[in-house]
Structures are given as C-alpha cells and as structure tokens.
Amino acid sequence: MLDYDKEADVYDASRGGEPRAEAAADAVLGLLPARVGRLLDVGCGTGIVTRRLAAALPAARVTGVDRTRGMARTAAARLPGAVLLADSRALPFPDAAFDAVTSVWLLHLLDEPGVRAAVAECARVLRPGGVYVTTVDKAASHNVGSDIDAVLAARPRTPARDAADRVARRAAEHGLLPAGQAGFPGRGQGRSPRRTIADLRRGWFVTLPPGDPLTERFATRLAQLPDQDRPRPDPVFHLRAFRKPGKPGKPG
Predict the structure, then answer these.
(1) pLDDT at position 205 over 90
(2) pTM of the predicted model as reported, rounded to 2 decimal places
(3) With bands split at pLDDT 50, 70 and 90, how would you rate the model's confidence at 15?
(4) Does a structural domain hold residue 165?
(5) What residues have CB less than 8 Å from 243, skipping those under 6 apart?
(6) Amino acid 146: pLDDT
(7) Comparing C-alpha atoms, which of 164, 110, 157, 113 is closest to residue 137?
(8) 197 domain-assigned
(9) pLDDT at 181
(10) Is 35 exposed, middle or buried (0-12, 13-18, 19+ CB in 10 A)?
(11) What is the CA radius of gyration of the chain?
C-alpha cells in the first residue's frame, strides 16, 4: 500500500491531473440529483475532483473528507474551510445530513470490513431521496487488452473488494437502490512498459511487493516489450449510483 502522505505532492501529476479530474467530475455530476443542497465527497484525496464538483454546483455546500493528512492538507488549499480530516468508516456527521455523497477511487483501497463500514456510513449520512455515487472495479478498469496486460495477466491477484456486484450488495444492505451508472476515461493514464516497471517497483501493485523476486521477473518481461515509452490506451473507469428511498427534503 502506498503512503498517501508522501504521495500527496505528486499524486495528481502521476494520475492524469486535471484532464482525468474533469472527466471524473463530469461523470459524477451526470448521476447526481437535480437539486443538491449539500454534497459530501468521501476520500476526497487532493480535492482535484471535489473542487470541480463545487464549481459545477455553486448553490451547494460541498464538503470533502480524507483520513490522510497530506491529502487533506492539499485538498484544503483548493477548498478552504470545506475539508475535514476524517475516516470514511466513521464519518463525523449526523444522520441524513447530505443530498448527495460521492466516493471516487476510495473503496478499492479498503479491506472488506472497511468497504462494509464505508458504504454503511455513506448511506447513513444520506437524506431520503439522496444519491450515493462511487467508483467500482478500479483494478479491472486498467485492463485495456494491451501487451502490458498480457504480461501482467499471470500476476497474483486479490479479490476486488470494490467489484460492482459486491458494492451493490453492500448498498442494498442499507436500503440503497440502483440509480444509474456511467463510465469515463482515465485521461493521461495509459500505461507504458517503462512506467509500469516503475510502478511495480514503487509498490503500486499490492500483490507484488517492491524488491520481491516475482516483481523483478515481471519487470524483466515488461522491459522486453517494444515501444517502452509509448502509452497504451487510457483506462475506462466505472461509476455506480444508488438512491436512498423516500421523499427528498428541502436541500440544506
């Protein structure tokens, strides 16, 4: 697992920057209710997506939370007074406080109990009639059928805790109903062999620890691919939306 305190300063540049954030925010906005008075972005990271949500919803009160100090600090610089240091598994808000809750690229970072707790908390703070939007299937989104994917196909894997069907079951456990889905490109995130080798050695692939002999065997195979610096196609990320039954109240 990466140290997100250390990653905060370079996180955006290493993951598509503003173009990816724009694509993500536009897709999220397309799944939100027509009227949003309060929106909570859980696991807001650097706030690069949260800021775009706030700009697109000028009448709404947008709040971001992240458990990592470095990320929350960066987000707070983008959204002064609107970011809190908090854990997605124990949100510091009362029940039914928000018209919309989002979690972009969060659930894949949690273990199974963490996913259960985070979805439960997002459902708890959502008002009746409100919508929860989250990314799903993060790891699978990066498989674009490239020669890099062919090399990495044999790597050890762990079950995807953010798999769409699993997330839907967790949402249903808390009364949330399916309310739509969308996809968006991870602009600027197409992998090249050389970049993938660097990612392997930094620990981005959690089942291949840095320095492990198996990691180096995959790195060697990747180094044999042609066009070492040519990015392969961008990934396509996926969103699922869930609605909390009930009559919407007046946006707060």
Answers:
(1) no
(2) 0.90
(3) low
(4) yes
(5) 129, 130, 131, 132, 176, 177, 178, 179
(6) 97
(7) 164
(8) no
(9) 98
(10) middle
(11) 18
Which CATH number fits the domain that encloses residue 95?
A: 3.40.50.150
Q: Which two tokens stand for residue 248?
A: 């919407």
**pLDDT score for 192:** 97
Q: In three state form, how does the secondary structure of the chain look?
A: CCCHHHHCCCCCHHHCHHHHHHHHHHHHHCCCCCCCCEEEEECCCCCHHHHHHHHHCCCCEEEEEECCHHHHHHHHHHCCCCEEECCCCCCCCCCCCEEEEEECCCHHHCCHHHHHHHHHHHHHCEEEEEEEEEEECHHHHCCCCCHHHHHHCCCCCCCCCCCHHHHHHHHHHCCCEEEEEEEEECCCCCCCHHHHHHHHHHCCCCCCCCCCHHHHHHHHHHHCCCCCCCCCCCCEEEEEEEECCCCCCCCC
Could you tell me if residue 116 is inside a domain? Answer: yes
> Cα–Cα distance between 119 and 122 in angstroms, integer?
5
CA atoms of 203 and 109, how far apart (whole Å): 13
Is there a domain that residue 167 lies in?
A: yes
**pLDDT score, position 207:** 86
* Residue-range definition of the domain harbouring residue 130: 4-143+159-190+233-243
Between 76 and 157, where is the model more confident? Answer: 76
The two structure tokens encoding residue 181: 């889905």
In the chain, the number of structural domains is 1
CB 134 within 8 A of CB 102: yes
- The amino acid at 135: T
